[in-house]
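EI: anyone free to look at a 110-residue chain?
SC: sure, send it
EI:
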Amino acid sequence: MIMEHSTFRDYNKKNTNKRNDDNMELKTIRKTKTELELEITGEDETILHPITHILMQNDNVEYAACMADNPLASKKQLFLRVKKGSPEEALKKAVKYLEDEIKQFGKNFE
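SC: here you go
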């Protein structure tokens, strides 16, 4: 098994490539029946781009994008518009799918 630490943050504490942000914060900017706009602090495009990519593979999603005022901004926005269903449910499904994919990828190293 490659990861012998309980969490990735535990792993990073013992390595030199630490993440500077220990807390991700989500703030709802706008929410309607078909749209959701979130402000994310403490994360970068490393996680937001894969989530956006997965969202766009969902037939019920009309549009998804992550944005920032500039590449170094600490606050990012995630925008999502659905054709059918709720935007929150689409986002939850995308995050769960990504989580499962990462777990499966990690199992290849056990």
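EI: Residues 1 and 108 are 10 Å apart (CA to CA).
SC: 👍
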